[in-house]
Amino acid sequence: MAEPFGLDEVRRALAEDRVREDATTRLFGPAADRPAAARFVAEARFVVAGLPIAALVFRELEPRAELEPAVAEGAWADVGATVATVRAVARTLLAGERVALNFLQRLSGVATGTRRAVEAVAGTGARITHTRKTTPGLRALERYAVRVGGGADNRASLAEAIMWKDNHWALLDSRGERLAELLRAAPPGLPVVVEVETDEQLEEALAAGATHLLADNQRPERVAAWVRRAGPAVTIQASGGITPDTARPYALAGARLIAIGALTHSVAAAPLRCEVTFVS
Fold first, then answer.
1. For residue 212, what are the CA distances in angstroms to 93, 178, 202?
2. In the annotation, is 184 catalytic?
3. What pLDDT does 96 receive?
4. pLDDT given at position 3
5. 178 catalytic per annotation
6. 195 catalytic residue (yes or no)
7. One domain, residues 91 and 156
8. Nearest 5°: CA angle at 46, between 44 and 49?
9. Residue 280: predicted pLDDT
């Protein structure tokens, strides 16, 4: 039977925090085993993501712990809203609250940034996606949060697609070879994405049969020109310093995919607090 999604990450985080050696909670003695409740409260408006992961945190510490969402995964939480309530013994809640908050704050921040970008390009047909600029060890969870926010999956690893970038072009030039020669060796069925930075690279990529081009660090006007040159059979993906606030011009230029590294590498954590109370 497969383990629940996110369990490995949860276990690593709990081990990092040494939750079973909570020196402070031990001061309460037997009182720490009294029933208690924890309430996660939104301190700003954001898209909620990570509730299933937070539930795993508490269940890993106490199998009978129950997390009850008050706001659905993927919905907006308003300021002051209770996002979820957890019921367990006080020892479990005090040990797990920070780990659960860390996951909820991080993943909700990713989902919120994604939702803002998705809303910014609404009506254009463009899709928002992520890059590989993710937190080490948390890529699967951050990609999940992008999906919760309405974004599309991109490749998860180096093995999932041929991603031809600027450094590959440099190596190719140093060898005096042509792109078409190397792409003939690509495994059948494996997606091929070719980054282009110049008109010459664009023409070589098209001549090699590439149908997915990455326009990295280009202005929307140039993206629009490349969209016209490539034609409707070729997907143009825009990336490079794009944010939710600057995404729409690229969508209007005809980019079908807009990859935003900021969704994961520099997103602001969603502000949440946890309030624990004893149950009489």
1. 48, 18, 11
2. no
3. 98
4. 86
5. no
6. yes
7. no
8. 130
9. 65
- Please pick, among 11, 45, 98, 139, the residue that the annotation labels catalytic: 98
229 in catalytic set? no
Q: 67 phi and psi, to 5 degrees? A: -105, 125
| Same domain? 102 vs 196 | no
Report pTM: 0.95
Name the active-site residue from 18, 165, 178, 219: 165
Longest CA span, the chain: 77
Query: Six-digit token pair at 257?
Result: 């995919």
Q: Is 137 left (phi over 0), alpha (psi -120 to 50) or beta?
A: left
Q: What is the mean pLDDT of each run of 10 residues along the chain (280 residues)?
A: 92 97 94 96 98 98 98 98 98 97 98 98 98 96 98 95 94 87 93 96 96 96 98 97 97 98 96 90
Q: Residue 6 is encoded by which pair of tokens?
A: 């996110």
Give the SS3 label for residue 202: helix
Which of 39, 155, 216, 222 is catalytic? The answer is: 216
Residues 101 and 68 in one domain: yes
Q: Is 203 among the catalytic positions?
A: no
Catalytic residue (choose from 39, 133, 139, 155):
133
| Cross-strand pairs, 84 | 40, 69
Please report, for the domain that includes residue 202, its CATH number: 3.20.20.70
What is the tally of structural domains in the chain? Answer: 2
Query: The domain containing residue 43 runs over which residues?
Result: 7-114+267-278
The SS3 of residue 150 is coil
Determine the pLDDT at residue 175.
81
Q: Are residues 183 and 205 part of one domain?
A: yes
